[in-house]
Design goal:
With about 160 residues, this protein is α+β, with helices and mostly antiparallel strands. Helix content is about 25%, strand content about 20%. A hairpin with a 3-residue loop joins strand 2 (about 90-100) and strand 3 (about 100-110).
Amino acid sequence: MGTNGSTMLEPLRQGLPPLDPAAVSSAASCALPARYEAVREARQFTRRTLDQWDMGDRFDDVCLVVSELVTNALRHGLPTSNGHAPEQIPPVRLHLMRWTERLVCAVRDPSHDSPVARDSDDFSAESGRGLFLVDSFADGWGWHPLAGTLNGKVVWALFRLESAE
């Protein structure tokens, strides 16, 4: 299999926990509307979920990363037709999955374009620093295209948890 010299980020699969549903101790997901209030909804959903899982102490870091991933999905992942995404299935979905020693936040969007961390000299620039924040607060992140009937990609971030022992 030859590579066609693409400069896109290769799909990062290393560090992604085996997505074996049986191994997940808890999982929750919510569909997000294609508008910027979705970021607030994603935060509220994350807070409720982490409180249920007794992980409220991790809320600040996780919420920051969730906000960035959802913002990126809305800003870069949606096909725009007059500024509105086509009204099909909700285009963006947030998944929170917990294993005993890790939490994964995954955001699905309909775009196949790779997320790109812009190497911007201007760190006050709003755009493009989201992935630097994700990289700083999460213990790992990556993305992969969706297979089968689902279009788009998933961008995920991993948090290590202290084991309960």
